[in-house]
Amino acid sequence: MKKLTDHPAALMFAGIAFILLGAEGMVQLFHSTYGFDIFMGIALGVIGLFAGFFLMKRSLSLKNQKEEEQR
C-alpha cells in the first residue's frame, strides 16, 4: 500500500492549501488590533508559507525522481 507522501499530486495540493493558509494569515494582519491577533497572523503566515513551499518542493523532487526511474 502506498503512502500519501508517495503521490506528487497530493503533496502539491497540500502545499497549495498551506500557502493559502499563509496568505490568510498575512491578510489577517491588516484586520487585527490586538497583540494576540497580530501574533497569530504572523504565525499563520510564516508556518503556512514555509510548509507550503517545502511540500511543493518535495512534490517536484518526487515527480523528478519518478521520471528518472521510468527512463
What does this molecule look like?
With 71 residues, this protein is mostly helical. The protein has 2 helices and no strands. It has helices at residues 8-30, 35-70. Helix 1 (8-30) runs antiparallel to helix 2. 11% of the residues are buried. The mean pLDDT is 88.
At a glance:
This protein has two helices and no strands.
Q: Key terms for this structure?
A:
71 residues, mainly alpha, 2 helices, rod-shaped
Q: Which runs of at least 5 residues are low in confidence (pLDDT < 50)?
A: none
Beta content comes to: under 5%
Profile the largest sheet: none
Q: What is the mean predicted local confidence, pLDDT?
A: 88
Could you estimate the helical fraction of the residues in percent? over 70%
Radius of gyration: 16 Å
Any idea what the shape is? rod-shaped
Q: What is the straight-line distance between the termini?
A: 24 Å
Structural class: mainly alpha
Give the helices and strands as they follow along the chain: HH
Number of helices: 2
